[in-house]
From TrEMBL:
One Pfam entry name: PS_Dcarbxylase
GO aspect biological process, one term: phospholipid biosynthetic process
Name this polypeptide is given: Phosphatidylserine decarboxylase-related protein
GO MF term (any one): phosphatidylserine decarboxylase activity
Keyword line: Decarboxylase, Lyase
PANTHER family in the cross-refs: PHOSPHATIDYLSERINE DECARBOXYLASE
Amino acid sequence: MPSQALGPFPTPATYHPMVQGLMNMIKRNKWEDQFVKAVSDAYNSGVEETTYIKTLPDFYDYLHYFLTWVPREDDTGNLVHNMMSIMYFVLDQESVKSLQSPIQPSSYPNQPLTELSQWIVYFSFALGQFLNTPESLTEESLRSFYNTESYSMNLYEAPREGWHSFNDFFARKLLPGARPIESPDNPAVIVSPADSTFNGSWDISNSSIVVLKDLPWTIGELLANSQYKDDFAGGTFMHSFLVPYNYHRVHTPIEGKVLEAIVIPGQTYCDVTIKKDSRGKKTLKPSRKFLRTDEIDIPDPPGYQFCQTRGLIIIDSPKIGKVAVLPVGMAHVSSVVLSTKAGAELRKGDEISYFQFGGSDVCILFQKQSQVELLAKDGVFYPMGKQIAICHTAVQESQRNKNM
């Protein structure tokens, strides 16, 4: 079944406090004209998902509905994605973009978020609170995920007592053996930390800068001035992305000791654009590419990972060196939860974090001296545990040991 219009959304007797807060903000700042135009432009784009969001009051009704919406899926496997994309599609219209914090070097945390950007963060928190309640998951909604092929529910282990909330379900665990770790005893083999699609790698300069779409971003910004921020100068930065139906737990790509494990607060952002479906109808599609201009569906701007809420886990491997793994919350991901802590000794494939609701990203940083060669190909999906790179320093050491 193709994507379809969402709504109509009923008008409540009383709006959710988050929606009322936005209404008050718009009135106080005299932003009515900008928001009316944003909703109108989104509607006039012809995207099916905005069929019932023609006016600003319609947008308020949608936001109120979304805050207590019980997530479910349809045959397309796109319903969850499309429901959360509407908000960002409206907020990404030109008339309201200037009211939000820019995605640019040093925009966060050095500069405080704008009032609207801070509201977006609080909205995601409020949504996350509901998704942690038993009311956010019903027998009917759970059945819809089992009936949607892209969710591959046959790979997951249902708790004996069941999932207690949607977020509990969203962070569901795989069945034992569903994701075998490739070459678990070979330290030179680096594996995918998550079920994710590889989207490329970039060199880090000797001054700890990575240039994304001609904008220079410092690794210090990404790592929130971690004491290890300069250790990745001259190294490699890589990126992969997850979509809502993927397995949303993150595992270590190497073995080693955790030097640092923190959550870095930041913005909540997702840039949404339009594509045509098989019928030629305009729709919001559930895929995302980073820094690639061809066929972009949700083209998050270069460097958005440096501004988003994210986890930071730095692992020290005696054979590879330091590796930084950053699970990055996207859109309405209400939290990045760490499963490890500093001092922990990890085996390759051990869990280190998980996400709650939405799409997500994973970035990995390697040191220069590690001589890591990325084997992953752009646009290819790699299940957690599948090899994506090889460390040549570890290979060379192994060969030397054999020759002794």
